[in-house]
Design a protein that fits this description.
Strand content of chain C: under 5%
Structural class of chain C: mainly alpha
Largest sheet of chain D: 2 strands, antiparallel
Chains: A mainly alpha (136), B mainly alpha (81), C mainly alpha (489), D mainly alpha (504), E mainly alpha (276)
Strand order of the largest sheet of chain D: 1-2
Radius of gyration of chain C: 21 Å
Shape of chain D: globular
Helix content of chain C: over 70%
Oligomer: heteropentamer
Largest sheet of chain C: 2 strands, antiparallel
Strand order of the largest sheet of chain C: 1-2
Number of domains of chain D: 3
Shape of chain C: globular
Chain lengths: 136, 81, 489, 504, 276
């Protein structure tokens, strides 16, 4: 029993990310509204960011900013040896900063496209657009 | 950090995500998406990813939501699903 | 012996294309075509002595695939074919000028361009040193002849063009390409050799399948049931039918099959697996059926087309006999049939230019109007039927000897029957042309031949047909060399 | 200087894109020259790299040119690895991009007169992204560059003068982003299990972990992402519309290069990141993927038969060609892999060739329906020479290069005993022949009523400007030249690549 | 489509959950991710780049090349939005509406003639115009300088605390967007015109790429800030720190300008009218 609980505790973060990702994927595939799909794509992206951040978590570690004396920033003044286990893993954070920015850029482009589509068809529902294309 | 707190926020995140996808009003969707992003940002802050959380707070919860609202404002709130 | 001559022979007519495109005056254009044709012929002829001495000229252009470069090799078989094709190009050029100008056809520049390309690739096929090179030029030839076949650009041409492509490209991509790849996979090489390279590389069943893929894949040889394109392609202007469908295209198909039988499978393998008989059976079926169909044709060019289908299979039959005499006869038939058949086509074209008639039933008594043409027609018909004093007799004689040498009496019967059939469809034409009662004649009793550009070539080819019986050199020597080479004796 | 080639390759186009963006606001006439200079430098650098890689001794340093960005050693910093495989792709990408840039100058000037700066900015950034994807040795860096190409691609495609372009582009956004995210997720899995992002480093760590489900999942997820991006059959739905409705100057850039670079990424993942040993031995996916490729080829060909216009038809052919390359790569033998890599270069060139020709036709005729092609041989003879050369290459007529890659692919299929794949290739060649001769027929016969005009001078010739025709003819000549040099390319570039990764 | 969606989602989800079994436990310090590459950043980062915020050090230096392209992605998004939506110029025959602020009287001017004289008492409006709330306007006007100040702090203090070019740039952009929302887009564009933010956007990325190129010119590899030591006359480690700062400023500029660019195009459908 305790094994199961510890396994759950060890992995539930990953399950949640999968759940979120699937919500996003479902929105992209199943929803007909173009903006809803964009929201779906964004949820998908954030889910992956959550996954990465989960990789970077480290028990008993603090945020990845090195404590330094009042002298501030001067590398020579660092007194104690820095242990890797003291700080969170910074690499996934760095990667995810990039991913967030990419997500917002994609969002901007997608919204611009949605507006353009709306200008042309007067609707954001995919089935209505397709029927309008067929009529034309 | 408390994994219980973690779990609560995770649940909230999932709830807002489902809400953002399911609600039948695009403006509401956009706002719920903002809430989702903010929850996400809290979650990351708890996990120690301060920079990511900071970025998500400003980008995801802030600017993204503004973009969504602007786009919805310029198109339509109507949605069938 | 490495020599760049084979490459030159291929490329010399291609060089003419840019000049043709840029030239605006017909005379200049046709002068260039003549020059290219003569140059090509001279280059080919200049290689004859070396080949007769038993040397092989080789030249590698590009190493594209290990074991299968783009390379040329001049051996007796290729030499014979190249000699036929290049000599007939000169004649046909002259005839084309007469025909095209006589009818005021459009797009003549395009016509001469693609003609040059087609001839280049024919020579390329003749000189190719391996299956890949052969396939390359085979495909180029298929594509280059498309604009020639559909020269009239009308609805009929469209239909025939489609048929042509479906048969030719369909079989070459669908059958030859995979077969070639399987060969490559089995032996790691594609280079033709006198003994073939497939022996001992795969199970007999696979060999049989490969044989079928090759024989039917080279649909230009018009073996039944892949013959449908040939009668359809007769919508082309007559010089095209003449050169391409009596000489270049169909002969390329036959040549390719002969090459594959001798250079890829090798006589030994064929006889060991008894595949020669299969080839003979396929060929003899084609011979008989095509001759029977030809009997019922009224359109002269269609008749000639079916006659061609039958005659082509003689060549394959000859090689399929696997006996030295049979091979000699088959290979010799490439040349003999070419000269005979081109004469017949020229005649058909000349009749069309002079009178506008296409059907045999409309040609009663035409011998009085066009005596020279019809005499040449008679000689051509004799050659095809295999009667002296025309060259066709020689090749048929050797074919007959070959059947005896191979103990294939059935095949001899096939040969004889088909010769009878040939006579049956040709002789009535000639008879009605000359010896019809005056009241039935459809033409005035006044000599009015086609333009000289049309008549001179057909007289020339008819004369050569006769000369070839008495002095069949260098074709005969080459054919003997081929037979010696592949049978190793 | 030559040690900086990998840097120059990316930086100069990037800087020139930024300068173009500024120039678009200051003096629009500067945009095109800056773009040409940027891409020329990239071309110079990529050829330089290819020569350097060819000269390098494989035994000494693996024949790899290493460039450490920021001066940090991998795996801590980002590094570029240039070996023969990506040097080849780099040259192909930069040549195609430069030729297309020059060929479409007139078209762009007329279609995007007011936004010419933005157009060229996006164009050059797209090429930068493609070059970067090809040259990078870092799995995450590849994702960022992937997004650059994707974003610029969305923008460029949506600006097609077509009614349906924005919707097509938006669908591309969904699928492209999901694809890129899958790739990112796969990289995340790899990072979780290995702790590294550097491809070479990952490859050195992975062999001990082959039995882990995570590695398997990482591989599958990466593959799904890459397949989504390249439009591999069941995931291809976005591709035909996006490529069809794009402006012609853009489709002739994206159609040849985007899918090919993604194929390159797939091969890189299969060969370098996950060694062939893992891809083909540990994983039991090989046969099913090849069958999927067979379906892709067959379906692509059949869909192309039913396409309503020329561009749609060509895009479905691309779907089939993607099937060629994926199938070839997954056959798991030398010949198949050789064919696949060779086909990256060949297919890029021949797709470029036909799309440039179609672009010229669209420029003159203002349409790309089958009816618009009537009598086109008379109107635009030189353009059609180029088109026919490209068409023959796609059909696989020797000596054009398409034949030789098909040769290797088919012989790979025979070697692997996978006759379904062989049959599919032959089938698709036949269908391609039908498709292209349908077009050639339409162009050759002209209008129905005006047939058989004896001796009359042809209808007026309206050839595209020289600047559009010359690049097209260069590409068309290139098709044959590359075909004739196949032996060299395979022996000097592709064989060492495959030999390095110890296939068979 | 919905059915298909559910099937795909369930299958994919199940497969993904299945693979989590072999995952290292969550937040396990001994997982490969935490033991292979990242310890180097934590242990040596401070010595090598003099930036206590390891994320900044890795972002702008170790993996600075990623960040360059990340900035380029934002730049791209700006250009794409402009490219897609912007309607260049306006046709001379549309009419403009001007509202007298004090009285609320609307004046329609045809042929796009500029109002002459006391323009300050009028504001240009569109047909969709809704009155803005004075409280919100004032509150925002007071807030915006502080927001911008904070943004500058975030950019400048990225070495030592969470934040950096991105976050700062986003906040700067958000401040202008706030101005555009609380007043209208024209007000914001008066502060920072279209041409200005378009050029600023590329200049921001140019600062980044240019820094890298300078290193290249100095004979080092691209983005090897150690090269700047020669120009700045400091030791290479400090040069890296300064390089990071320069780069962060570039990122901030680019991100700010790009976000404004995207917002103004999206919110006005490319007309650059009064926006939301």
């Amino acid at each position: 029993m305790s094994e199961i609980i510890s396994s759950v505790v060890a992995h539930y973060n990953y399950w949640i990310y999968i759940a979120l990702m699937m919500i996003g994927l479902y929105a992209v595939i199943g929803k007909k509204n173009l903006i809803k799909k964009i929201i779906g794509v964004n949820i998908f992206q954030t889910a992956i960011i959550l996954f990465y951040v989960s990789i970077g978590a480290k028990k008993g570690a603090t945020i990845p900013i090195i404590h330094h004396g009042p002298g501030g920033g001067h590398h020579e003044t660092t007194a104690s040896v820095i242990e890797a286990s003291q700080y969170m893993n910074p690499l996934p954070h760095v990667l995810m900063l990039t991913a967030i920015v990419v997500a917002v850029a994609t969002l901007g482009v997608a919204l611009a496209l949605a507006i353009k589509v709306y200008n042309q068809y007067g609707t954001l529902e995919e089935d209505e657009i397709l029927s309008r294309i067929r009529v034309r | 950090m408390l994994w219980q707190l973690d779990l609560v926020i995770l649940t909230l995140v999932v709830a807002t995500a489902i809400g953002a996808v399911a609600i039948k009003d695009l403006l509401g969707s956009a706002i719920l998406f903002g809430a989702y992003s903010f929850m996400m940002c809290l979650l990351w802050a708890i996990m120690g990813a301060v920079d990511v959380a900071f970025t998500e707070a400003s980008v995801g919860a802030g600017v993204s939501t503004v973009f969504f609202v602007a786009a919805v404002f310029r198109t339509t709130r109507r949605t069938k699903d | 012996m490495i020599s760049i001559k084979p490459l030159l022979a291929v490329l010399v007519s291609l060089l003419v294309v840019p000049i043709l495109v840029s030239s605006r005056t017909p005379n200049v254009r046709e002068a260039w075509t003549f020059a290219a044709a003569s140059a090509k012929f001279l280059i080919v002829v200049s290689m004859v002595p070396a080949v007769l001495r038993g040397e092989q000229l080789v030249y590698t252009v590009a190493q594209v695939i290990p074991g299968a470069p783009i390379a040329f090799r001049v051996d007796p078989l290729g030499m014979l074919f190249a000699l036929v094709a290049s000599s007939l190009w000169i004649v046909t050029t002259a005839y084309s000028i007469g025909y095209m100008r006589g009818l005021g056809e459009h797009g003549q520049t395009r016509y001469f361009c693609f003609f040059a390309i087609a001839l280049s690739s024919t020579i390329g096929v003749a000189f190719s040193a391996n299956l890949l090179t052969l396939y390359l030029f085979y495909e180029i030839l298929s594509l280059a002849t498309y604009p020639l076949v559909t020269h009239h650009q009308d609805a009929e041409a469209r239909v025939s063009g489609r048929k042509y492509l479906v048969y030719i490209l369909g079989t070459s991509i669908g059958l030859v390409l995979p077969a070639m790849l399987i060969c490559y996979h089995l032996s790691g090489t594609l280079a033709f050799s006198d003994q073939g390279f497939l022996a001992g590389t795969g199970p007999p069943q696979l060999m049989t399948i490969l044989l079928f893929m090759f024989v039917f894949g080279f649909a230009k040889a018009a073996i039944l049931p892949f013959h449908g394109w040939l009668p359809a392609a007769m919508v082309a202007p007559t010089p095209v039918s003449a050169l391409l469908h009596a000489v270049a295209v169909v002969k390329v198909g036959v040549f390719s099959i002969v090459r594959v039988l001798t250079g890829v499978f090798g006589i030994e393998l064929l006889s060991w697996l008894n595949l020669g008989t299969i080839v003979c059976v396929i060929a003899s079926c084609t011979i008989l059926i095509a001759s029977l169909i030809a009997l019922s044709q009224d359109n002269l060019k269609r008749l000639l087309a079916f006659s061609t289908i039958g005659q082509l299979s003689y060549i394959i039959l000859g090689v399929g006999l696997l006996s030295p005499k049979g091979i000699t006869g088959g290979v010799l038939h490439i040349a003999m049939h070419a000269f005979g058949k081109i004469t017949l086509f020229f005649c058909a074209g000349a009749i069309f230019v002079a009178t506008g008639k296409r059907n045999i039933s409309e040609m009663v008594g035409i011998g009085r109007r066009m005596p020279v043409t019809m005499t040449a027609f008679f000689i051509g018909a004799l050659s095809i039927t295999g009667l002296p004093p025309a060259g066709g007799f020689l090749s048929k004689w050797y074919l007959g000897l070959g059947t005896l040498q191979a103990d294939q009496i059935t095949m001899l019967v096939v040969l004889l029957v088909s010769s009878l059939l040939n006579a049956a469809y040709f002789m009535p034409i000639v008879y009605r042309a000359f010896f019809c009662p005056a009241e039935m004649a459809m033409f005035e009793n006044r000599v009015q031949e086609a333009p000289a550009f049309c008549v001179v070539p057909l007289v020339l080819t008819a004369l050569i047909s006769i000369i070839l019986l008495f002095y069949p050199e260098p074709f005969f020597s080459l054919a003997r060399l081929v037979a010696q080479g592949v049978t190793g004796g | 200087m030559s040690s900086q080639y990998p840097g120059l390759l990316i930086i100069v186009p990037l800087l020139s894109a930024l300068l173009i963006s500024v120039a678009g606001w200051v003096n629009k006439r500067l945009c095109f020259p800056i773009a040409v200079v940027g891409l020329s430098v990239a071309l110079y650098a990529s050829i330089g790299l290819l020569l350097r890689v060819l000269a390098a001794d494989p035994a000494l340093d693996g024949g790899v040119v290493l460039y450490r960005l920021g001066g940090w050693d991998p795996p801590w910093g980002i590094a570029y690895y240039v070996d023969r495989l990506n040097a080849l792709v780099l040259v192909v990408v930069s040549v195609s991009a430069l030729l297309n840039l020059i060929a479409t100058k007139n078209d762009v000037r007329e279609s995007f007169s007011t936004k010419i700066g933005a157009f060229y900015t996006l164009y050059i950034l797209l090429v930068t992204g493609l070059l970067g994807i090809t040259v990078t040795g870092d799995a995450f860096n590849l994702y960022v560059l992937l997004e650059i190409t994707a974003l610029t691609g969305y923008g460029l495609i949506a600006m097609g003068g077509e009614y349906r372009a924005p919707l097509a582009s938006l669908n591309y956004v969904y699928m492209g982003t999901i694809g890129a995210c899958f790739y990112l997720l796969g990289v995340g899995y790899l990072y979780m299990i290995t702790g590294s992002l550097n491809m070479a480093d990952i490859a050195s760590i992975l062999p001990g972990l082959y039995d882990s489900k995570v590695v398997l999942a990482a591989f599958v997820i990466c593959m799904v992402g890459v397949w989504l991006k390249m439009g591999f059959f069941p995931l291809h739905a976005w591709l035909p519309n996006a490529y069809t409705y794009a402006p012609s100057a853009v489709s002739s850039l994206i159609a040849p290069l985007m899918t090919k670079v993604m194929i390159y990424v797939m091969i890189r993942l299969m060969l370098t990141v996950f060694t062939p040993e893992f891809t083909f031995s540990v994983l039991a996916l090989q046969t099913s993927v090849v069958w999927l490729a067979v379906i892709a080829i067959v379906m692509g060909s059949i869909l192309a038969l039913g396409a309503p216009d020329v561009k749609k038809m060509l895009t479905y052919i691309i779907v089939a060609e993607v099937g060629y390359m994926v199938g070839g790569a997954w056959l798991g033998n030398r010949a198949g892999m050789t064919g696949s890599i060779l086909h990256i270069a060949n297919d890029a060139l021949m797709t470029l060739c036909v799309f440039l020709a179609v672009g010229n036709v669209v420029y003159r005729v203002k349409g790309y329906g089958f009816d618009d092609l009537r009598g086109i041989f008379v109107k635009m003879p030189f353009t059609m020479i180029g088109f026919v050369a490209g068409a023959f290459s796609i059909i696989g007529v020797p000596p054009t290069c398409g034949f030789f890659s098909k040769w290797y692919l088919i012989s790979g299929g025979i070697e692997a005993g996978h006759y379904g794949f062989v049959a599919a290739l032959v089938f698709s060649s036949l269908i391609n022949a039908v498709l292209f001769f349908k077009l050639i027929e339409v162009g050759y016969y002209g209008s129905e009523d005006a047939h058989h005009h004896h001796g009359t001078t042809p209808v007026s010739m309206a050839e595209a400007p020289v600047s559009m025709v010359v690049p097209l003819l260069i590409v068309a000549g290139g098709l044959i030249a590359v075909g004739l040099y196949t032996g060299d390319i395979v022996a000097r570039i592709i064989d060492p690549v495959i030999a390095q990764t110890i296939m068979d | 489509m919905k059915f298909l969606g559910i099937i795909v989602v369930v299958i994919t989800g199940a497969l993904l959950v299945y693979t989590t079994g072999d995952f290292p436990s969550w937040s396990d310090p001994a997982s490969p991710a935490s033991t292979h590459v990242s310890p180097h950043y934590i242990e040596k980062g401070m010595h090598e780049t003099a930036a206590p915020n390891i994320v900044t050090a890795v972002l702008a230096d170790y993996r600075g090349f990623d960040t360059l392209f990340e900035t380029t992605v934002v730049f791209c998004a700006g250009v794409v939005c402009f490219f897609l939506l912007r309607i260049p110029g306006r046709s001379p025959f549309t009419e403009c509406q001007y509202r007298h602020k004090a009285t609320g009287i609307t004046v329609r001017v045809k042929h796009d003639r500029k109002m002459s004289g006391s323009f300050g008492e009028f504001e240009r409006i569109d047909t969709l115009w809704t009155p803005h709330d004075l409280i919100i306007q004032t509150a925002c006007r007071i807030l915006i300088p502080f927001i911008q100040l904070f943004a500058l702090y975030v950019i400048a203090h990225g070495h030592h605390s969470p934040g950096g070019g991105f976050q700062g740039g986003v906040i700067l952009g958000a401040s202008i967007i706030l101005l555009a929302i609380s007043h209208d887009l024209r007000t914001a564009l008066d502060r920072l015109g279209e041409k200005a933010h378009a050029i600023l956007c590329s200049v921001g990325v140019l600062v980044y790429a240019g820094t890298g190129a300078v290193c290249m010119v100095l004979g080092f590899n691209f983005l090897d800030y150690g090269a700047l030591a020669r120009i700045l006359h400091v030791d290479p480690v400090m040069a890296r720190s300064h390089g990071i700062l320069v780069v962060e400023v570039g990122v901030g500029l680019a991100v700010m300008a790009a976000l404004i660019w995207i917002y103004s195009n999206v919110s006005s459908r490319g007309n650059y009218d009064e926006g939301l």
